[in-house]
Amino acid sequence: MNRLRQYVRSIGNAIAKVLFTPNPARFPFIVRNGTKVLFLRHDALGDMISTLPMLRMVKEQFPFMELHVMCTKANVAILDHCDFIDAIHIVDKSILHAPLLHIQEIRAIRSMDFDIIVNCLTSQASKNGLLTAMLSGKHSVTSSVFAGDKYAMYYSSQSKQAACMKSMWDKMALLGSETFGIVRQEHDSRAILPTSQLYVENALNSLKELCVEKKNYIAINISVGQERNRWDSASYRRLIDYLLRTGKQPLLFGLSTDAELLNSIMHGFENIRHYPFNRHVLEIGEALKHASWGISPDTGFLHIGSAAQCPMIGLYCSLPEEAKEEWLPYNVPHRAVYSKTKLVKDISPEDVIKACDELQSML
Asked: What pTM, to 2 d.p., does this model score?
């Protein structure tokens, strides 16, 4: 099966090499008044959050460019109130796996004739390269993080500087820096939490209604995007019991689809509450600004915490050593707890409790 898959892939790459020949261009790409640039970030919430500082950096350097972002329903919410983005194009995530089913969307975006296309995705290199090529106009130049010489057929240039970075936040910053010839400044690495007064007030009112004291509660997220990252009810209950015994105030966060798990976790505890369901992601970020620290499995909540400058503890499935830093909380005090297996549920509560003690000693 693996040999067949490799054979099919090699045939696909050979066909792509014939059909798609990128316009040659070296970094940095030239940006003129009105240059139209499309950034591809059609994946998850955390990925988009890690890319916002780069988008802001590019727009600040070239305010006269036209900056577009291709995203999905899963991550578009974080773009609300980003005044450095000129246009948003929402596509279905399946566009990557079944582009022929989305040919009208692809043709519509391609017809906008972008001068520069920056592919911010770093996985599934062949599929992303093919989609980038399909979106490219006759005069488009394209870039991505360097994924190997065999993917050069899809891009005008690939960023080797970005490929050397371990953190996704730094990968995105270096991709923008090399593509557009920008010398990074210290403030370019700051995480961004776009907001409005409505979200600020809603978060403060919700915390008040829940009788939660600002800067004196622990935000515990139970919602995950992938089942492998789910922690179980018994482990959460052991953690909450410890936090209560040490004078902490836990506050649970989750979606309405997590109601059954929430009820199981909270059963028998007095005065344990959860944040209201289905609030805007930017309101959640405002609430995290007032937490002592946060705890979450590997999902977008960790990166909302980074953007809110909230210290975080992340729970991760087993990862190879070279991948462990890619999705750590960024530029905030943090601890990471790794499972010995491919499932977060195999992390012991005692290991998370130890991380709580270590993080508190850092603050």
From this structure: 0.93
Is 90 exceeded by the pLDDT of residue 28?
Answer: yes
Q: 84 near 55, Cβ under 8 Å?
A: yes
On whether the CB atoms of residues 151 and 158 are closer than 8 A, the answer is yes
| Residue 257 C-beta-side C-alpha neighbours within 13 Å | 3
Per residue in 329-358, pLDDT tens?
A: 999 999 999 999 999 999 999 999 999 999
For the chain, the domain total comes to: 2
SS3 185: coil
Which of 189, 216, 242 terminates a domain? The answer is 189
Angle of helix 233-245 versus helix 349-362 axis, rounded to 10 = 40
How is 196-239 classified by DSSP, letter by letter?
Answer: -HHHHHHHHHHHHHTTPPTTS-EEEE---SSGGGPPPHHHHHHH
| Interior angle at CA 190, CA 315 and CA 80, nearest 5 | 85
Q: Residue 251: beta bridge partners?
A: 219, 273
